Amino acid sequence: MTSPFEALLPSTERALLHRVASAQSEGRSPSLVGAVARDGQCVWSGARSCVDGHAPDADTQYRIGSITKPFTAVLVLRLRDEGLLDLGDPLEKHLPGTGVGEVTIGQLLGHSAGLAAESPAPWWERTPGALRPKLSDVLGEKPLLHPVGRRHHYSNPGYTLLGSLIEAVRGETWEVVLRREILEPLGLSRTSAQPEAPHAGGWAVHPWADVMMPEPAEDLGLMAPAGQLWSTASDLCRFAGFLAQGDDRVLSEESVREMRTPSVPPEAGDWESGYGLGLQVVRRGGRTLIGHGGSLPGFVAGLWVDVEEGVAGVALANATSGPLAGTVATDLVRIVVEAEPRLPEPWRPMPEVDESLLELAGPWYWGTSAFGLKVVADRGLELYPLKGGGRGSRFRVRGDGDGWIGLDGYFAGETLSVVRRADGSVDHLDLGSFAFTREPYDPAAEVPGGVDEGGWRGLPR
After folding, report:
1. What is the mean pLDDT of residues 450-461?
2. Global pTM?
C-alpha cells in the first residue's frame, strides 16, 4: 500500500489500531474503519467489526453526511474563480425567488446567513427527499432565525441553497457537476451520491442493550448537497490532500487556503473552533486542524487534517450514535504527529539571486521596534519582529509586480512597497502606511510626523 519511505513505524501502527479497536468496542459500532494519510497518500488503514473473521477495509463505502459540504463549497468557489459569481453577491442575483435572496453566497458558505439549522418536519435525514420537492419546502415559512451576517449558526438548508445555486449557474444537476469537476479529476472513484458495493449498512444500536436494527438510507433530494455522499477511507485520504495543497485541475492552493480561513467569529465561549468556507477549523492539543464531521442515521464520519504536518485522519462507522468519529480522526492525526513528526526539508539556496531584493534583506525599524526582513523563494518576503511581541507576515509578489501582498497575520492582504529617493536609493518600506526605516526614526528617511532636529539625547544628571 505504501513505499518503504512512507511506511509508519510498527509501534505507530499498533497505536493507531488500538485507537480504532477501542473506538469500535467502546462506541458499540457494528464496524469502524480508520485511516491516516501523509501528503494525500494513504499510509495506514485499519478496521474492526462485530463479525468474526470479517472487517471492512479502506475501499468500503460509508455514508459521510456533512463531509459532503466541503465538496459543495469547492464547486461554489470554482464558479467564483471562473468569474461567474462573487461571494459578496446576494443569492437573488443568481437564484431568484427563494424568499431569502438578500443573504450572500459567502454567508451561506460560512453559515452566517441566519438560516435555520434544519428544514421543517418531518426529519429530513430519515424521510425521502421527495417530501421536499421545492426550496420553499426546505426553507419553511420562517427560514431566517437570526440577523443576516451577524453570527455563526450552522444551517443544512443553507447548503441546499448552494446546491441549487450550482445547478442554476451550471445548468446541470449538482451530482453531475460534482462528478465531472471534483470526483473524476481527483480520482475519487469510490465516492458517489448513491451507495456502490462494497458498502456498509447503517445501523441503530440500542442505548441500553446490545441489540441493533437497520436504519433507512434515504435519497435526500434537494438536501443532497448538505449530506448525501457515500465515500471510503481511501478516497477521503486523497481528498484530504487536496484540502491541504489544492489542485489546479479543481481549485487552486490559494482558494483552498481561503476555505480554511475562519469566515465569522465562533459562538460565544467557543474559542477552539471556527468555520471557514465549507470547512471547520479547530484547535486541538496546540495544533490547528481543518476538516469536517458528518452524520446521518446509521453513520458517523470524521475527516481532519493537520496542514502543517501534512497528516490527515479519517474515521468512518456505521452506527447512528456511539463512536465519536471526529474525535477518533483527530486522535489518529495526533498519534502520528507525536510519534513521527515531519522531517524538515533540507535547506537549499535559491537558484538565483536578485540583487534588488537582496538589498532589502536585513534589519528594519518601525519607530523603535526592530524587525527582520528575509528574502525567500519565488521573490517572496518574510517580515518578523526581532524581539518581543510584534506583527509579522509572509508576503508574495503582487500580480502586477508592484510590491508584495501579505499572506497572513495582521498584514494579510496589505501591500508592502519600496519607497525610493530621486536617485533610486531606498528611503523606506511602506506597509499599510507604516514606515520601516533602516535606522530607528532615520533622519535621512521620510518618517511620518518628522524626526526631531535635536536627535537622540540622554538625561542630564
Report:
1. 90
2. 0.89
